[in-house]
Structures are given as structure tokens and as C-alpha cells.
């Protein structure tokens, strides 16, 4: 079967075409804000302007005729309502015009499923870290349960927010990583883990308040050391509690080498292994939506073209019947 997936929950409009074994094509058209963070209306306009063309190119690059696509899947949520609406409308139109089934996919679960597919890990504790989301999840009893999560903002948005204070354009995460590599002094910042949940806004406010007193390299270094230690601690506790031996790191912040190293050290010390998908599957991408849609469809999930968007769609609300 060949599935076309549309991703567009936030900054990246991305179309992927996959079959059961491989990615046939992948076309990403990112939205880059002129200033500040992601503006939902601008991002949705960007998606609307580019979606028809991107779909055409993706089908063409996969060397297929539109009629050879067997399934349309799209990211149903969580995400920015205006962006989700553009994506869902395009998916429904395509499904109706090609007379092919449609599947709405949970974006967080797609990050996990494409990670399992790309790395070959089977039953991991997942650290999913992106702009809007930060969660520790694992599969238990037909669901991806959330064992710990952020109580306020996602770690990616936290890094982007601090970067904006330094006039670094969006997305700031990669630039913070570069600065942090040059830092060497650990500045005390709030380390907030409550039970299995964590919080980043106090840490970022504290760092922002110290911009005039410290080198930005040391602040970037300290933000990373503190926040990544919090994420690693909670992931380790989930690993111990669930008695698993695989850790899967996914989401845009997973590009970060320091976070990867910390998790790798922790996993090795617990006789476990860290798995990380290839870079093209870490950030938001259409292939993850196509792949997950295909798995769901083959497991018997049926949706109608009337399917609605879910801006607050939680991964633990989805019954996972394909594992
Ligand atoms: P979601 O809807 O899952 O929250 P998203 O829209 O935030 O996804 P992603 O591509 O998953 O999109 O993640 C983007 C985030 O990843 C941004 O906040 C960006 O700063 C961050 N990021 C990317 N590369 C790095 C890096 N090397 N170090 C730290 N953060 C990074
Ligand atoms: Fe994402």
C-alpha cells in the first residue's frame, strides 16, 4: 500500500509518501517567521499557499500517479488550530477527489512510531521533546501512557524564548546549542521536577534575569545542563519503574548532541540502549504521518472525510491497536 501523509501542525508543512518498507518521497516547505516566534495566522497562510503544490511534487517525486495513492493521512493534532484546519481541509479534499480512505493521526504518536520504524527499537521508554511538547511516554495496555510531562512550556519553546532575548531568530534551539558548546561555568538555575513532571518557565525567567551579569555562552550552557538533567532524571525513573531496556529520543530538540549524550550515558549505565532516528525523522515531517496512518489503517481504524481537527489531542487518548 502507498500512503500520503500531510504534516502541518506548526512551522513545517511537509508531505511524505511511504509504503510498508520505505519512504518514497518527502517534501518539506518550512515557514520561517520574519521576527519573533511562530505566528499562527501567518503559518496557516503559508501552509495554504504551498499545500497543493507540495502534494503534487511529493506524488511526482514518488514516481506515482495520484490514483496510485491508497490512503491519505494527516496530522489531526495537537497543534495550532488555524494550521490544522488548512491541513485537514486539504486531506479531506484529496480523499474525496481520489476516492481514497482518510486517517487522522496524533502528531505525538507519529513521532514515536516513525522512531520505532527507523531505529528498529521495539518497546522503548520515549522522551519526546519538541517546541510545544515535552513528554516521557511508554506503551502499556493498548496506549502510549504519559509518565511525565511539562507543567508549562515545552523545552523547545523554552530554548527559543531565551534565544529571542538574545535577538537570535526563530528557531533558537540550534543556536543555543552552539553557544552552550563554548560555555564552561555552571550558573545556578531552578531545577524543577515535581513527581514525574517538570517545568521550564521558572528556569528561563531566571536565566533571562541574569543576561546582563553573565556571558551568554555560560547561560546557554547552564540552561542546557539544568533542563536536560531534569529530562534525563524523569526518563531514567520511568525506565527503572517499567523495567524496560530501550530509550527512544524523538522530536525536534532530539537534534541536540548534549541531550543525546546525557541520555546515552544514563541508558548505558542501566544496561539499556538509546535509539535516535535519523535527523529527517526528528523534526516534524510528513513521512511520520503517512507511516502511522498506514499502520492504523492496516489495523482496522476507519475514519470518514467528516473527521475533525483536535488542537489539544493527547497521545494517551488514542487506543493503539496496531502493536
Ligand atoms: P511539536 O508539535 O511536536 O511540538 P514542533 O512544531 O515544535 O513540534 P519540532 O520540529 O518537533 O516541531 O521541534 C522544533 C523545536 O526543536 C524548536 O523549538 C527548535 O528550537 C528545537 N530544536 C531544533 N534543533 C535543536 C537543537 N539542536 N537543540 C535544541 N533544540 C533544537
Ligand atoms: Fe513535532
Overall description:
- The structure is a single chain.
- This protein has helices at residues 40-61, 81-98, 107-119, 155-165, 173-181, 201-209, 216-242, 257-269, 286-298, and strands spanning 3-7, 12-18, 23-30, 71-77, 102-106, 125-129, 134-140, 143-149, 193-194, 197-198, 246-250, 273-275.
- The chain has nine helices and twelve strands.
- Helix 4 (155-165) runs parallel beside helix 6 and helix 5 crosses helix 7.
- The chain is globular, with a radius of gyration of 20 Å.
- Strand 2 and strand 3 form a beta hairpin.
- It folds into two domains: 2-110 and 281-317, Nucleotidyltransferase, domain 5 (2-Layer Sandwich); 121-278, Nucleotidyltransferase, domain 5.
- The mean pLDDT is 97.
- Helix content is 42%, strand content 20%.
- Bound molecules: adenosine-5'-triphosphate (ATP) and fe (ii) ion.
- Residues 9-11, 79, 107, 130-133, 154, 156-157, 159-160, 171-174, 177, 251-253, 255-256, 283-284 line the site of adenosine-5'-triphosphate.
Amino acid at each position: 500500500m502507498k500512503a500520503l501523509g500531510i504534516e502541518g501542525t506548526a512551522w513545517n508543512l511537509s508531505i511524505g509518501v511511504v509504503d510498508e518498507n520505505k519512504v518514497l518521497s518527502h517534501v518539506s516547505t518550512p515557514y520561517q517567521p520574519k521576527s519573533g516566534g511562530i505566528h499562527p495566522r501567518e503559518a496557516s497562510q503559508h501552509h495554504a499557499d504551498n499545500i497543493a503544490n507540495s502534494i503534487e511534487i511529493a506524488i511526482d517525486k514518488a514516481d506515482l500517479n495520484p490514483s496510485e495513492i491508497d490512503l491519505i493521512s494527516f496530522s489531526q493534532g495537537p497543534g495550532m488550530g488555524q494550521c490544522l484546519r488548512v491541513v485537514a481541509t486539504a486531506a479531506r479534499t484529496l480523499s474525496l477527489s481520489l476516492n481514497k480512505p482518510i486517517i487522522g493521526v496524533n502528531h505525538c504518536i507519529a513521532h514515536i512510531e516513525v522512531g520505532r520504524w527507523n531505529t528498529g527499537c521495539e518497546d522503548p521508554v520515549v522522551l519526546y521533546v519538541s517546541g510545544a511538547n515535552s513528554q516521557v511516554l511508554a506503551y502499556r495496555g493498548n496506549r502510549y501512557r504519559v509518565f511525565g510531562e511539562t507543567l508549562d512550556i515545552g523545552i523547545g519553546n523554552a530554548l527559543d524564548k531565551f534565544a529571542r532575548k538574545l535577538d537570535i531568530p526563530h528557531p533558537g534551539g540550534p543556536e543555543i546549542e552552539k553557544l552552550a558548546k563554548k560555555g564552561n561555568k555552571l550558573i545556578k538555575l531552578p531545577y524543577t521536577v515535581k513527581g514525574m513532571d517538570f517545568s521550564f518557565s521558572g528556569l528561563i525567567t531566571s536565566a533571562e534575569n541574569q543576561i546582563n551579569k553573565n556571558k551568554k555562552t555560560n547561560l546557554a550552557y547552564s540552561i542546557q545542563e539544568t533542563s536536560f538533567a531534569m529530562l534525563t532524571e524523569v526518563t531514567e525513573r520511568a525506565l527503572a519503574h517499567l523495567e524496560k531496556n530501550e530509550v527512544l529520543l524523538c522530536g525536534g530538540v532530539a537534534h541536540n548532541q548534549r541531550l543525546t549524550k546525557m541520555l546515552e550515558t544514563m541508558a548505558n549505565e542501566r544496561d539499556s540502549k538509546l535509539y535516535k532516528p535519523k535527523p529527517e525523522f526528528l523534526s516534524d515531517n510528513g513521512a511520520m504521518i503517512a507511516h502511522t496512518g498506514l499502520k492504523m489503517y492496516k489495523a482496522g481504524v476507519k475514519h470518514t472525510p467528516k473527521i475533525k481537527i483536535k488542537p489539544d489531542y493527547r497521545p494517551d487518548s488514542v487506543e493503539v491497536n496496531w502493536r
